[in-house]
Amino acid sequence: MPAGFQQLGGETVTGTLALSVFTAVLGSLEFGYNIGVINAPQKIIEENYNATWVHRYGQAIPAGTLTSLWSLSVAIFSIGGMLSSFCVGFVSEWLGRRKAMLINNLLAFMGGTLMGLSKVCRSFEMLILGRLVIGAYCGEAGIRLDPYVRGRDSANQSARGAGHAAPILGLEQLLGGEELWPILMGLTVLPTVLQMALLPFCPESPRFLYIVRCQEHHAKRGLRRLTGRQEVGDLLAEMKEEKRRMDMERKVSIAELFRSPLHRQPMVISILLQLSQQLSGINAIFYYSTSIFTKAGVQSPVYATIGAGVVNCAFTVVSLFLVERMGRRTLHMLGLGGMCVCAVVMTIALSLLDTVPAMSYVSMLSIFGFVAFFEVGPGPIPWFIVAELFSQGPRPAAMAVAGCSNWTANFIIGMGFQYVAELCGPYVFLIFAALLLFFLVFTFFRVPETRGKTFDQISANFHHASADDAMMDMDMELNKTSTELDYFGDESIN
Ligand SMILES: *[C@@H]1O[C@H](CO)[C@@H](O)[C@H](O)[C@H]1NC(C)=O
């Protein structure tokens, strides 16, 4: 059971609560699934693109066109994610969390259907469009959007990890073969249907009802259902207190965020940390590992891909424990450093492969290490730090900017990796090693420890506290406590 569940005010876990968490994290499962699903069947689907091309134009597809089409199929997912991560705050405030999730499910349904039917319809455009739409779904459902429960981060992270086991299904013997890959792509509609079926039985987020809609009565009823208690006055009082504090702090727009000297430095840090997550090269592995290994001549590359998925799964759980016990900054540096070493080892192993066949095992192990260290640091930590660097006023804007940088970098890797890999061969990971080293140095010199600190203490690290700033820091100090009382919260998206 994810650690976060126990935090619910020491309450027992009711059926309704368990159901709500389960329903909500199905979205994260989809996120992990759709990141990894295109990895193993790359070659087979590329052959299908080629066949379609031959059917339409009577000639084989030019190699360059094929690379572009496949890169686009992989990367357009991030464009969808970016677009929807901008709309999500607005939509969920307008419709409520539950209806927003229902609507979002229609996207997943459309995306899955488009991808699943693309082969029958002989249209790679459908697959590409489907990836865009499913990306839009994941932008809302994926990273930090569990509207229901505290502990959502742990539950979400675990579900996302589980989704990364997708490459197992991508085995040629299972669904990754010539005939069945459309099912592999379309399978993403199953969790969607399940989520749609379960949502009506989940209560609307009480925090949303109270803080956004001011419906105290309905919020109370939701709290009762989720906790199984009749007396929920204490929880309501906490939300009241939080609302009071939120009302005290003005919302900050994105433009203001960049103009204000108070926010500039935390903003730069947040953006760079998001970049450190994506430019670490993790998605080069999740999207392309099968192809990297095939080209390098490793035997049974699909097993390396599956292994990476399984390691990822296991280490999301390990990271849940670490995050509660160690400092953010330490973990991030540990992760970056470990990934950097693994990238170098992998490069060496791949370049010695011709002379020393045993190197294929070393290269696999280094990929597993790379993924494991990712889940220790650059995977979870950047989101924690953004949330902890900003108080409630500027936090939504900061989160939007951070999300946008994240998706953009994700797109760049998905789109550009194959071209760079063609140029550099196995040495491509030295580029990531260099980037990782840069981010490690940056974190060492610039990123403050945020765990368990008040905004006051954090901003004392940024050496520009004027008298004005000191006043704001006091406000922030007040606000800090309220985020800890966030029982049903998605403070990140309002
Ligand atoms: C496309 O298919 C044809 C045979 O139909 C083959 O000769 C050609 O090598 C293939 N091209 C690519 C890029 O796979």
Compile the SSE list and pairings:
Blueprint: H1 15-36, H2 42-57, H3 63-95, H4 97-117, H5 124-141, H6 152-163, H7 166-169, H8 181-186, H9 189-198, H10 206-212, H11 216-227, H12 233-248, H13 254-259, H14 261-278, H15 282-296, H16 301-325, H17 328-352, H18 359-376, H19 381-389, H20 395-424, H21 428-446, H22 455-461, H23 467-484
Helix pairs in contact: 1-5, 1-6, 1-9, 3-4, 3-5, 3-20, 4-5, 4-9, 6-16, 10-11, 12-23, 14-19, 14-20, 14-21, 15-16, 15-20, 16-18, 17-18, 17-19, 17-21, 19-20
Bound molecules: 2-acetamido-2-deoxy-beta-D-glucopyranose.
The site of 2-acetamido-2-deoxy-beta-D-glucopyranose (NAG) has 6 residues, from helix 2 and helix 3.
InterPro entries: GLUT, MFS_dom, MFS_sugar_transport-like, MFS_trans_sf, Sugar/inositol_transpt, Sugar_transporter_CS
Membrane topology: Multi-pass membrane protein
GO molecular function: D-glucose transmembrane transporter activity
CATH homologous superfamily label of the largest domain: MFS general substrate transporter like domains
Q: Give a count of the beta strands, DSSP E runs of length 2 or more.
A: 0
Give the number of domains: 3
**Helix tally?**
23
- SS-derived structural category: mainly alpha
> Biggest sheet, in brief?
none
CATH hierarchy class name of the largest domain: Mainly Alpha
Order of helices and strands: HHHHHHHHHHHHHHHHHHHHHHH
* CATH level-two architecture of the largest domain: Up-down Bundle
Shape: globular
Question: pLDDT below 50 for ≥5 consecutive residues: which ranges?
Answer: 1-10, 142-150, 464-494
Domain Major facilitator superfamily (MFS) profile: 20-451
Catalytic activity: D-glucose(out) = D-glucose(in)
GO molecular function: D-glucose transmembrane transporter activity
Family: Belongs to the major facilitator superfamily. Sugar transporter (TC 2.A.1.1) family. Glucose transporter subfamily.
